């Protein structure tokens, strides 16, 4: 991704967050220059990859396949002696026409919540033992305390305020229902590890390669400088 694309995506998500009056932590507003001065008292943000996360999954077409996220809080399974939180929270933004590819998590259970905007469609499959799509067996889903059994490949529609529980080994993708507008999503989950806990159905990356065509507006969660 070009840095200019990342900067534009950050600013667009900031506007959506303001529109829906979702206040985010102060570190989401730190400039790159401010990060250069932050000491070890901010190591939890660095170590647990809190903050901004813009991705095109390494496919080079953010407007078609991409997502904008903020990790608000997170634990760390590899450093659980230091960071004892067993949970995570994210804010996600997806535009009409964007797509987040089919994947599951080996470890993480999560609730995806439509916080506002349009409707989000989440297609669900079970995984086979070989980690392929199970296109035969029905999928048990839980939506706001209601248990449903749906055919494999069903797109579950979440209108604002609705949520779905995504279990480990449950394949899922995201897209906006056409014509309903961009969606602000919440994610409440067990500890999140985007380096090791994403099984994409088709091979792809999780974080973008960045072409520096302008100065960064905010740093991504993978870019923080070491503490002085």
From TrEMBL:
Signal peptide: none annotated. Its EC number is 5.3.1.15. Keywords: Carbohydrate metabolism, Isomerase, Manganese, Metal-binding. Its cofactor is Mn(2+). It catalyses: D-lyxose = D-xylulose. It comes from the Bacteria. GO terms for molecular function: D-lyxose ketol-isomerase activity; metal ion binding. InterPro entries: D-lyxose_isomer, EcSI_cupin, RmlC-like_jellyroll, RmlC_Cupin_sf. Belongs to the D-lyxose ketol-isomerase family. This is D-lyxose ketol-isomerase. It comes from Clostridium symbiosum (strain WAL-14163).
């Amino acid at each position: 991704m070009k840095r200019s694309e990342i900067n534009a995506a950050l600013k667009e998500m900031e506007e959506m967050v303001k529109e829906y009056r979702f206040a985010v932590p102060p570190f989401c507003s730190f400039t790159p220059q401010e990060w250069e001065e932050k000491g070890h008292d901010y190591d939890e943000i660095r170590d647990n990859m809190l903050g901004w996360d813009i991705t095109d999954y390494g496919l080079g077409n953010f407007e078609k396949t991409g997502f904008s996220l903020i990790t608000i809080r997170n634990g760390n399974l590899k450093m659980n002696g230091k960071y004892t939180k067993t949970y995570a929270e994210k804010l996600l933004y997806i535009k009409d026409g964007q797509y987040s590819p089919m994947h599951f998590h080996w470890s993480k259970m999560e609730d995806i919540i439509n916080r506002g905007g349009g409707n989000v469609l989440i297609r669900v499959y079970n995984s086979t033992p070989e980690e392929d799509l199970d296109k035969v067996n029905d999928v048990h889903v839980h939506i706001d305390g209601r248990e449903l059994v749906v055919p494999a490949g069903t797109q579950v529609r979440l209108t604002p305020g609705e949520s779905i529980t995504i279990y480990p080994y449950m394949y899922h993708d995201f897209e906006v229902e056409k014509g309903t507008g961009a969606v602000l999503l919440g994610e409440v989950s067990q500890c999140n590890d985007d380096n090791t806990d994403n099984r994409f159905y088709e091979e792809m990356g999780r974080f973008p390669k960045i072409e520096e065509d302008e100065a960064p507006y905010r740093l991504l969660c993978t870019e923080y400088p070491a503490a002085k």
